[in-house]
Structures are given as structure tokens and as C-alpha cells.
Design goal:
This protein has an 8-stranded mixed beta sheet, with no helix packed on it. Strands 16-17-18-27-19-26-23-20 form an 8-stranded mixed beta sheet. A 6-stranded antiparallel beta sheet has the order 2-14-13-28-29-15, with no helix packed on it. By secondary structure, it is mostly beta strands. α1 (2-16) runs antiparallel to α2 (20-38). The longest helix has 19 residues, at 20-38. It contains 6 helices and 36 strands.
């Protein structure tokens, strides 16, 4: 296709070119076509041995994240299970990233950035009693949220035809290649999922009659975040809804960090949803924020029930641990940190009604010291050994160039 369609067009262009500018444009065109030819296609052809199996694997459920033990070449690794990732991820500079390179792919991150990344074929992975071969992984820089993990397992497990059940309460992941492995279990109304960029999207009703297509993303710790443009559209129709939500504050800020960078500044709304519907289940007292990225439900959903995927019919099932009407009462996000141009921790977002704002933090403040000790980078700040209940003195550099000291208990007792 590349030679039959693109190159004849380029050849005709060259024959008609009369000026140096035209030839320069042609060179750029051919360079871009060669780059496109090097991009591989998404593949989800993981092979499993043994076949006709159903395996239960012990997982770790920590701070609303799912960690799966994986063995590669006799070495033990800790992988994050991330349904928001289209396929596995390994980190540049690590041994797994040295696997044979097979192609490149366009990668889309949480902040809306797109980049071309290398794709490698991993050695066979031992997950529980099963061996997975043919796994492809993108090679990406290690991000801030990847401390303590060696890689990521993505949704290509499901796209390859495997059924998954994630039960965080029981601390187990069930994997099977049998097409009807979970049919005997009791579920709420099955949710049809649709694939976009090879990851699962489902429909929820965050309030009133507002249907919202959301990514189910276990790589996110949030319960629910809503695209700001979609929220503003709903705001215009608020008169149609009966007490659907409350706006607990609004500001300008940013909080999403992807491997390609930070999202731009934008308006952020802090919400409290009175009743959010997921199939036959409802969730009350849900704190949420808006985002410039896509709407999504995160792994915090697994606090309230198990989730399973059936790829044959593209169904996602939710199995509540208790009643179908659940009260969330999650804490509102009161402050979020990003990086400034020098890589230092900067307040990207602060809730006007929260404690950090009352203590004196403002959007754009750069943290330069804690109790007199210099803070040089955001990773250093994230690793700071804060003690619950202890008050610390934060020295910040404001957007006006002035330094201020703020006393704050970083982690409440």
C-alpha cells in the first residue's frame, strides 16, 4: 500500500516541482511517510499455556491500586494492573526494556499528549500457574506514580480473549480462557463496553439524565472524574435535574501528569454528586473533580464490588460486596502537585474550601524547602518521610516572587 499509493503521488509531485520550496516540501513529505511506515499496529495476540484453564492469583490491593506478582526468567517482578493502558508497559533503563524491539506505536497519555514510543516483545511471563507469551510492551519513562512497580499489565490481556475478574476485597485476580467462566455468578445488569484506543469505555449516569461515557481505568486512584467541557454542557441544562449535584468550588489549575508532560491550565470544578448510577447500582455522596482529559472511573470503584470482563461479548460486570445502593463519602481532592520548569514541586491545583488553601497555599506556589531543608524535585518531595499528625513548615516561592512560610500537617493523624 505504501508504494502503490503514496510514492506515485510523490513522484508526480516531484515531476511538477519547479521551485526549491516545492522540493523541500517533498522531502518533508517522504520523511513523514517513512516515519509512518515504521509505526506498528496494535497487537493483542497473547498466547497462554496451559489452555482451558481458570487460575486464581493472589494480588496486593494498596491505596486503590492492584499489584500482580509476575515472574520473568526466574526473576520476580511487581506489575500494576491498569485497564486504562492498551498493553503492557516497561520502563526505560530497566532490564525488561532491553527485550527485542518489534515496532513503534503512538502513545496517548492522561494529560492529552501524544508521542511515538518503542514496542518490545517481552519474554514469557509467569502469572500464577499460567505462562503468557507473545506479550508486547511499550517502553516509557518512569513516571511519578510508578515508584515500587516494575511494569504495567494492560487491557491487551482482555483483548486477547482472556476473561478477568478483579476482587480487591478477597485479594484475588481470576484469569481464564474459558468463554463462560463467570456465567454462573450473580451480577448486576451487564454493562456493554466499547473500545477506544483499545481500552474499555462504559456508560454511567453521574446525575439527572446525564449519560456519560467513561473510561474504566484501574490505573487511576480517583473514584470519578468528569471532562470539564461535558460538565459545562450539563450546567447549561441544570434546570432539568432535581438536585443532581453541588458545585463545592471552582478554580483555575491543573493536576494531570502524563509521560508526555502536564496538562495546561484550565478551569476546574469541585463537585459533590448526590446519586451516580452504574447499571443497577447507585452511589451517593461522591466527591469528584473535572478534568481536561476524558471522563473516567478509577480503581476506587473496587472498594465497593468486584469487576469482571467478558471479551467475547464485550461485557463488563459489577458485583457489589453488599447492597446495590452504596455511599461513597470519599475525600475531596484539596491539593495537587505538578512540576515547574526546573522540576520542582509546584501547586498545580488547590481547592478553595480545603485546609491547604486556608493554611495559605495558592496555585503556582513552588515548594523550595521543608523545615529548612531544600526541596529540589517533585520525586524528592513525593518520597519525603512525612509523619502522620506532625506539623511541618513549608517554604514556598509564590508567583509574585516572594517567599512565604506555611505550617501544614501533610498527612492527618
Amino acid at each position: 500500500m505504501h508504494e502503490e499509493i503514496y510514492y506515485p503521488f510523490a513522484r508526480r509531485f516531484f515531476e511538477q516541482a519547479k521551485h526549491t520550496r516545492d522540493i523541500f516540501i517533498l522531502v518533508l513529505l517522504l520523511a513523514s511517510l517513512d516515519a509512518m511506515a515504521q509505526l506498528g499496529r496494535y497487537q493483542a495476540d497473547i498466547r497462554v499455556w496451559p489452555q482451558d484453564f481458570c487460575d486464581t492469583i493472589a494480588i496486593q490491593w494498596e491505596r486503590d491500586q492492584i499489584y500482580v506478582p509476575v515472574t520473568v526468567g526466574g526473576h520476580s517482578y511487581r506489575f500494576l494492573l491498569d485497564t486504562g493502558a492498551s498493553q503492557a508497559v516497561v520502563f526505560s533503563g530497566t532490564p525488561l526494556a532491553e527485550a527485542p524491539r518489534v515496532s513503534s506505536l503512538l502513545s496517548h497519555d492522561a494529560a492529552g499528549h501524544t508521542d511515538t514510543v518503542a514496542v518490545v516483545q517481552l519474554p514469557p511471563l509467569q502469572v500464577g500457574k499460567s505462562t503468557l507469551s507473545g506479550c508486547h510492551a511499550t517502553v516509557q519513562p518512569r513516571g511519578l506514580g510508578t515508584r515500587g512497580i516494575d511494569g504495567i499489565l494492560g487491557f491487551d490481556l482482555v483483548n486477547s480473549g482472556l476473561q478477568l475478574k478483579i476482587d480487591a476485597k478477597a485479594g484475588r485476580l481470576i484469569i481464564s480462557d474459558r468463554p463462560c467462566c463467570f456465567d454462573h455468578e450473580e451480577w448486576v445488569t451487564p454493562l456493554k463496553y466499547r473500545l477506544s484506543y483499545h481500552v474499555p469505555y462504559i456508560d454511567v449516569i453521574p446525575f439527572g439524565r446525564q449519560y456519560e461515557r467513561v473510561l474504566f481505568d484501574t490505573g487511576s486512584r480517583n473514584f470519578f472524574s468528569m471532562n470539564v467541557d461535558r460538565f459545562l454542557e450539563a450546567e447549561e441544562q441544570r434546570h432539568r435535574f432535581d438536585r443532581p449535584y453541588r458545585v463545592e468550588g471552582r478554580t483555575v489549575g491543573r493536576h494531570a501528569i502524563g509521560h508526555g508532560g502536564i496538562e495546561p491550565l484550565g478551569e476546574v470544578f469541585f463537585l459533590r454528586l448526590d446519586s451516580m448510577a452504574l447499571g443497577d447500582c447507585s452511589f451517593s455522596s461522591v466527591h469528584a473533580i473535572t478534568t481536561q482529559g476524558g471522563s473516567h472511573i478509577g480503581a476506587a470503584l473496587l472498594r465497593f464490588g468486584a469487576v469482571a470482563f467478558c471479551p467475547k461479548h464485550k461485557r463488563m460486570f459489577f458485583q457489589p460486596y453488599g447492597e446495590r445502593n452504596m455511599r461513597v463519602d470519599n475525600k475531596q481532592l484539596d491539593i495537587a502537585f505538578v512540576t515547574d520548569e526546573q522540576g520542582r514541586p509546584q501547586v498545580g491545583l488547590v481547592w478553595p474550601e480545603g485546609t491547604p488553601y486556608r493554611r495559605g497555599f495558592r496555585q503556582g506556589d513552588v515548594i523550595i524547602a521543608i523545615d529548612g531543608r531544600p526541596v529540589l524535585s517533585l520525586p524528592q518531595f513525593m518520597r519525603w518521610p512525612f509523619e502522620p499528625g506532625r506539623k511541618y513548615r513549608f517554604t514556598v516561592l509564590g508567583t509574585d516572587g516572594r517567599r512565604r512560610d506555611i505550617e501544614w500537617v501533610r498527612l492527618p493523624a
